[in-house]
User: Fold these one by one.
Assistant:
Number 1:
Amino acid sequence: MIPLSYTHLLQLAMPEVIIVVTALIVLSVDLLFLRNQRTHLRFAVVASLASLGCVGGIFRILQAPEQTNALNGMFLANPLTHLLQIALLSLTIITVLLSVDSTFTEHVGEFVFLILLATTGMLFLVATQDLLIIFISLELLSLSLYVLTAFNKRDSRSSEAALKYFLFGSMSAAFLLYGFSLLYGLSNSTNLIQIASAIHGQSTSPLLAIAIITTVIGFGFKVAAVPFHFWAPDVYESANIPAVGFIASASKVASFFIFFQVMVVGFAGVEGSAVWRHLVHGWVPILAAIAALSMLLGNFVAITQSSVRRLLAYSAIAHAGYMLLALVAHTQQSLAALIYYILTYALATLGAFAVIGVVEKQTGNDHLSSFSGLSRRAPLLSACLFAFILSLAGIPPLAGFFGKFYLFLSALNATPGSNGLLWLVILAIAMSAVSLYYYLQLLKRAFVADPLADANDIHVPALTQAVVVLLAAATLLLGCAPNLLLRWILEAIAASSR
Amino acid sequence: MLAWTIYISFLGALALLLLPKASTTAARVLALLAAVAGFGIALNAFLTHRTGELITVARHPWIPALGIEYHLAADGISLCLILLTGIVAITGILFSWNIERRTKEFFAFYLLLIGSVYGVFLSYDLFLLFVFYEIVIIPKYFLIAIWGSTRREYGAMKLALYSFIGSAMVLIGLIAAYVVAGAKSMSLDALAGYPFPLHFQMFAFPLVFVGFAILAGLWPFHTWAPTGHVAAPTAASMLLAGVVMKLGAYGCLRVAMTLFPLGLSPWGFHVLGFGSWRDVFALLAIIGIVYGAMVALVQKDFKFVIGYSSVSHMGFILLGLMTLNQIGISGAVVQMFSHGILAGLLFAVVGRMVYDRTHTRELAALGPMNLNKAIPFAAVTFVLAGMASMGLPGFSGFVAELMILIGAWHAFPILAICTGLGIVVGVVYVWRAMQKAFFAEHAVASSHSPLPPISIPERLGAVILLATSIAIGLYPQMLLKIITPALNSPLFEGIRKGGWN
């Protein structure tokens, strides 16, 4: 191993350092100067500081060297990690801006501090190839999210959801750690590439099988795939809106990316195959089964929901199922499809939760009936909701459509000539037809139903409105011109795999 | 230039949304202007490109990594259907002049629908075609669910889900075809020129064909059509029956049959007397013709009569496609045009002229109102439209159905005879509906307050549609001149090899 000086390490980790420093500044500014101010003002100051920090981080990433691999893969930098880090920082900025109008807490500094800590965890998470760093940064992310979930102390359901999240989460972390330790035992290394070369061809080893299964459980929990999804509906239903948006967008992006990396890089050579009638044991058929279950359960249970947050939670489970197709396909193209899908999904979900937040504040709950006549009560907001929901449903010309199209295409393209994954693609497309039903139920409330008798116009805070419109515009733009993002992703993947 | 049909409609929709809340007249005029502009462009193209050969309208790289292009092109078939869209769009707005509730939203959704329909007919890249095809679903749903009548939310949801399931089938087929062909291009001619293996075509053809045919009202997947038409507001039923169902038929011809022509070839064995998918779909089409007519015969609701008659007439189109001979397929395209005009007119009479005045569609309740005296214009229009719809010479329906029957006679002599039954019943149900609704003998003078007279926009719309039908009926060569060369283009070579007589 090449020795590395601390200054060099700090330079490499500069974006993360910037975010941590910003977090500390945020905490101290709020504590020292803003204690007696109004919540809104505190949020505004703190959010602008945090956003500035994130923008600084983005600039630093843009100037960073193209390719670095420090400490045997513990710390990576390449165009792909840069792309993801920029995306994560942007999602963090959006989340922080959306939380400005929140009123659920007085602990403003702490709230934003935790969001930034979670972001730090994610930045490390996507830029490593080492099991130890993966585990540590995943824990940093998770612990911050547990606390964020519980942040609304006045609401007992919020604490309940957080506890549930924490219990399930720590159990899955234990599984993950167990799997990682077995992997270390099998390969004598914590580097994914070295692990892959060590375990190559041992697909029948029972230890390896246990390692695969426990790793899949650990990550399956993070991405809320069936049967590890139980926490998701409760957390989505009860936590405060910025935290839910953050869990559903940024944390999903980071988790799915590292899930892909660990499985595809770390378990290369023991994939097996999920081709119809030619199943070969390995991790691919396991993920294929999980994907199929997630799509089925997520979509069918979502139909019966009357709470919009729970509806989106189950739809998130279904989307996790679609995205697992990319892992099942495990090609470079499917990685590109996964990144495109998850980023556009994150934009649409974040936007949808922002709209729910506004509606909830006015009507007191997130029941479907609260959305009745929204198009009359807040025309611009509901137009944006229209874009987000239809993007989730995969209707063109919104970004979600191209995401789905590209994802399914890459899954079929993984086994050219044999159409081996056609069964999963057919299931996925059929399930997205089912999903249109419940998405339209929500839009029907907003556009068809008349407002309740005592309903008046909904007041939309200016900042939230602006962010929501921006998100909707991005969703539309990326749907009409997918090449803007796709080209960047493809170039980054090509440059990083060299 | 032709691409502006799409852009003007979308821009019109956007402009409508930006109008101030109260300006309903401005909204109507703006929508009409956008529709007229679209029609003008379509007509101009129809009149200038008389060779029927493929003209490229726009071609730009769109998603180069996947070989997807923004490629708009038109040949004789698409020109006919674009002209149809223009005509129906204008008359649809004329017949919904009386929409008072959420007017600008109504016309915004309406123009969004029109723009995407133009887009489907103009797309030459299949990805683009699919994008427009899917956009159509959403405005369709909201037009029915917000401004509809009987069981509107049910009808709208059923329509949306059927359409979406159909397009899901199409999507599976298209992605599979794209991957099998080497994932290089989504262009129609590139994929149509690719020799897909026989076993692949045998499963992809029925998948994509049925996917599109669901929207064309193929029996037994037609059930969305009557409920959807009945629930929809007049303009939406005009568009649904007039152009949206044609999207399905157009997709069958343009995509399913050109991409997978071998899917039509014999299986090499017989199951229940069927030797190929062609036999299966021809039989389903004929069942649709006869079944639609029979069911229309016993309806009590005036609009259901027209709804089921649409299923019957759409059956002719699918039958024409399955004849695989020049005259049958040309007849199918003429029938797309003709039915688009006539169904629009019939729905306009029933939905706008009668229902909006009497607030009932029950045939039994309409009888005592002496409608032939109260609103003679509606009665005359319906008689003429009914005659055209029965297939009387001189109207467009006659030419189209005659051509399809000749084609069918060559291809399936026995089945063609059964089709005759459908035509006979077709005469009867129109007659019955006409008699019950307009000419029932009731001595009692109605005690109702006098019905509002037929307005100018309505008269104008009816005249436009009738004149078009008669023009085509008297001079079908107008359409055939550009349809025939289009069918002889290299694009349809596969079908010609598969059994062109």
Number 2:
Amino acid sequence: MTDTTIHAALSSAVADVLERMFFLEVLGEAAEPPPEAETVTVHLSFDGDSPGCFRMRIARPAVKVVAADFLGEDPESLTDRQSTEVTLELANMICGAVLSRIESSATFRLGTPQIETGDTGKHGSAEETRYTVDTGNGTLTVAIQMETRTCSPTEKYAS
Amino acid sequence: MADCKVGNVSGQVLATYALGSCIGLSVYDPKAVVGGLLHYMLPDSGIDPARSLVNPYMFADTGIPKLLEQVCVQGASRRRLVAHAAGGASIMDPQAIFDIGKRNYLALRKILWKAGILLAGEAVGGGNSRTVRLEIGSGRLWLQEGGGQKELVPSFPQKGGNTWPTGS
Amino acid sequence: MAYRVLITDDSPAMRSFVRRVIELSGFELSACFEAGDGAEALAVLQNEWVDAILTDINMPGVDGEELLRRLSADESLRGIPAIVISTDATENRIARLLALGARGYVTKPFRPEALRAELERTLGVPSD
């Protein structure tokens, strides 16, 4: 499993989800915001043939706009709870779409997405593949780490 | 180019021409026998609010609500409207950094979703220019593209067999 | 005709989205039950009849596959058409769900029109 393959899966999945259910056009990769930027982060784990974890980091100003577009409502009429629920589902859908692209014949099971609060120190590990887009109201970054990337037999027993 | 026509008389035919990257949105109420056809060019009036006051039909966000308002004034019910879209083609322009046809189409989808209207069919994307005609009496919608003409019927599977999985 | 449906998904946002699609597709709803997982869905079905069940797969507790399994094992419930709405579009999963009696399948992300098509295929075009 190459980083290029995973990166392609991330970009394709993000575009697919944002266009189909949020009516957002993604113009290509953008620069990742710094760790101190105002963002909301969602984390979810998955297990099955290739366990791992997924994170989505979205700019705060984008949260309500994206949620309103999904629910077909005006941003002003949404509660924080509704915005959070949509944000969690967005992460769930992107993760599922990525995994379907990477492992079309494997079995996987997604955990429950959770909002990460506070600084968990998880600002990116060397083993993650990341991808960032501009939503028009701020950036959205997705990152995935899969066990098979580092635990394939050839890598494990190389030299 | 950017305009909106509404008809409520059997025998009338509304038409809009040369839909390249523009979108032609057709709505029709079969019970009230009222239909409308909007031709817009750009997704968002925010880029030129002054222009949208002069011609709201130039933009999706000002034109679509106006179209819906006008057909409803003529007796159409939003819930009964049968909607079709045509256009949103990718016109190759080396200066362009984004696909205006696709942007127009996504703007349409977003606004219709908020307005509570699903599309019955569409002929969008690609590279061809299109012309659309709506017959008010019958509600039939004709699409002219690439030298040929055909009826634009519901293009999402309605009944009968379907392959799994669907998502598009 | 008015319809009674049960929407099962652990995401309240997705339940709202699905409900909206059903309504905009012309299916007048006389009842719309919601459940956060398969166990809640089965509890609803103890007391209520529905014309269709729409269910996610990945849910904590009793997941969608287990729900389908229990529906098909129950004589009084196995006739209710179930449409699966899931992120999992893998071949293995779809084959299993077909075998468990799912009548339709929509992959997330999906266009509202795609769900409408699946609803009409399963329930027929709604009458006025």
